[in-house]
Request: fold
Amino acid sequence: MSADQGREPAGASGSERPQRRTFFAIFPSIMLPMFLAVVDQTIVATALPAIAADTGNVARASWVVVSYLIASTIAAPIYGRLGDAFGRRRLMFAALFIFVLASVFCALSPTIELLAMARVVQGLGGGGLMTLSQALIGEAVPPRERARYQGYLAGVAVSANAFGPVAGGYLTEHFGWQSVFLINVPIGLIAVMLSRNLENVAPGSSHWRPDPIGFVLFAIFVTTTLLTLEQIQHVERSALPLLAGLFAAGVTSLVLLVRQEMRAPSPLVPLSLLRRPTIWRSDALAAFHGAALVSLITFLPIYLEVVRGLSPASTGLLLLPLTIGIGTGSLLTGRLVSKTGWTTVFPVLGLAVVTANLVVLALLVQAMSQAVLGWLLVWNGLFMGTVMGVVQVTVQTASGPLRLGEAAASVQFSRSIGAAFGTALVAAVLFAVLSGKNPEAARAFAAMTEQAAHAASSPATQSAEIRAAIAEAFRVAFLSIAAFTAAGFFLALSIPLRRI
Reply:
């Protein structure tokens, strides 16, 4: 069946034009919601110092980021299930309404606690925007053509990841931290108007029933797991009982969740899909790719400002080559998959090159000029863009048309978990190396991280010994990121579905 699906678009240029017109008619309706969902994961980062100063609670500033990530991760599979059953257009309207309304509440929040609660609601909308956007591609175009258009969305998602910190810093500096949230209102309203172009196709089964027990267990598992990973970054002896309790709650809820989903008539987590080697290996690949990408975007700016002494503006400009490279790589990969039908060969090649690039970055970054580093990031981005579009089209093809929402949600969930785990692990590696080599450097770096403004001592005022210790810690951190892409390389090699 996949061979027939693959031949149809390739040879029929007449049918390709209507498909292209149909896609680009709905593309803005898909692009804007996805952009909003992704950019809100990173745009707040550079606003955290201003938020903490205004609300007077630096210690809990990280909750503004963590609460959104937890809620969006929980929401992703729920929207996938509901979209399959009731149609994705209705769900897109609901997700946009929740997201825009919560953005207003975020801007009006006077305390960090209320802001974190508003971010939870915002994440419940954002998780739906991401999942529904990916699944709508599966409705609009056939499998062989899907890869090309998934490349556009992958480019949008990655660009939003890198654009967020730059835009957040500019808005906060000129208009206050509230503008970081209020900017979502006009963009969200435009997305609502454009969503009228979407058709409300409901391919799912009318026998779908809610799974409230699964939802509660899933929420407990995700919340406790991400909180455990977040606590590991700042682990202290006094916090060990809390850390052990969170870990035990996460493991217990996972065991109960698996038992519940195996007997639920309409399971929230699609275990039947995850039993298929093509799907679980593709999802694992998405997790490792998310871990590498988000860790790199998170810690490379910190390295550039702390070790190299670059300004935030210069750091933002150096991230642009990486973003441009990933967007270009995603587009080229989508076109190649559409023309040839081959899938996993592209991430296999791409991740091999990316792993080598990251090793070079770890070993030689101190000796690189800004120009050389920029070219390396472009090259790295081109090959990093070979993954997500292929993963989405592979999982959607393997799942079949009736379960597109579940398939898209499984990829988004895997990527979010991978990003959270990867970022926490790299942070733990940084602190472990710093503490082992120079406790004073660890304290300086911890202060900078907690303030989220790179407000620790600048390189000009730090001793050479502290700068050397921090540089060595980042070398190990970049090698850790290379380990993520190496694991993704071997997973890509093992995916059974190699052509669509």
Observations:
- The longest helix spans residues 404-437.
- The chain has one domain: 15-199+266-494.
